[in-house]
Amino acid sequence: MPIKITSNGRVTIPKRVRDYLGIEPGTQVAFRLAADGSIVVERADGTRPPSRFEKLLGSAGPGPSTDEIMAMLRGDDS
Hints:
With 78 residues, the protein is an alpha+beta fold. The chain is built from 3 helices and 2 strands.
C-alpha cells in the first residue's frame, strides 16, 4: 500500500494499519529498523494487538468436566 510523503516530510498511516495497531489521535508510534533492513511501525508504548488465537480464547465456553468426558468415552449412561 504505497503512500506519498508531503513536502513537510509527513505521511498518513493507512486506516487498516491504525485500526490493527489501535492507533488513535495522540497515540505515539515508533519507527524501528528491522534486521532485514525494513522499517517497522509500532506503538511506542509497546502494546501489541491480540493475535487471532487470543481473540478466540474462551469463546467455546467451559465444556464438560474430565469426569463427564471419561463417562462419555466409557459409554456410561449414568
